[in-house]
Amino acid sequence: MSLHFGPEFPEETYVTHKFEEQVVDLGEVCMNYATTGDASAPALLLIPGQTESWWGYEQAMPLLAKHFQVFAVDLRGQGRTTRTPGRYTLDNMGNDLMRFISNVIKRPTFVSGLSSGGVLSAWLSAYGLPGMIRGAVYEDPPIFASEVNTSCGQSIRQTIGPVFALYNKYLGDQWSIGDWEGMREAAPKELPAWIAGLPVVPEEPPQDLKEYDPEWARAFWTGTAAASCDHARMLASVKAPILFTHHFRMVDEATGSLMGALSDLQAQRVRELVTGANQSFDYQSFPEMGHSMHGQDPKLFSETLIDWMSSLSKT
């Protein structure tokens, strides 16, 4: 039996959350978001990772709202934001976020993104309008490690990429195939051994994947997502202070594959390029932390952001 999720199947796809959801028309996409906090406080934009919707930040938002006006968004192709077949690129997503800041937040903004959202946080710190970004948090971002042809370390083919290939093969763009059981059966045979042992395909589709367009997975696996956004060139153009949180990582000695978002070598290269652009770079290592700090430990995540952002106002 094929399963189908997305905007055309709202009853099967979406659930309610404790923050009210709003929508803004940005041109190509109508972006879904939630906000909390006082409008007189500094603005903070939260950018979810791949397969994540805005509500991945739901537990952290009340903690952050004591210090910021918080905006958490669904990226194109995720959550309730418009699907855009054939147009899932970092540049398009970055421009969506720049329009969101310009049209909704309307003032200089701190940004924080997880995973692919962390790469988009880097995009904004490099390519945002002058004065738009007050500071950017890269939460365990797969910089270099989500490129197909990378200039540093492991590529997406040596990291989590095979999972993305599996998603798109069995779920299809816009959930057009939806063969969840077929994907469960294929995972042990089609994934590399070090990934096949992980619980990457549960018995039922989790809520975050129901809200996710699997074409995202194809765009990253094939390289079209970053084809016009070389990571090294982007980092050399950064124009804002950076906080970089680096979580669990390990390199498999037998295969050279990377378990985690990016290696120590890749993180060091990020530092070199950002500081080479004359921007401050605060690196904080959390080797015991899972990929999403804001999901696993929202208190630590919030305290880490608040402390760093407060320190910027004192310099």
Please tell me about this protein's structure.
- The protein is an alpha/beta fold.
- The protein has one domain: 3-Layer(aba) Sandwich (Rossmann fold).
- Helix content is 36%, strand content 16%.
- It contains 13 helices and ten strands.
- The chain has helices at residues 10-13, 61-64, 90-105, 116-127, 161-171, 180-190, 193-196, 207-210, 215-222, 231-235, 264-276, 293-296, 298-313, and strands at 21-25, 30-36, 43-47, 69-73, 109-114, 133-139, 242-246, 249-251, 258-260, 281-285.
- Strands 1-2-4-3-5-6-7-10 form an eight-stranded mixed beta sheet, sandwiched between helices.
- A hairpin with a 4-residue loop joins strand 1 (21-25) and strand 2.
- The longest helix has 16 residues, at 90-105.
- The radius of gyration is 18 Å and the shape is globular.
- The termini are far apart.
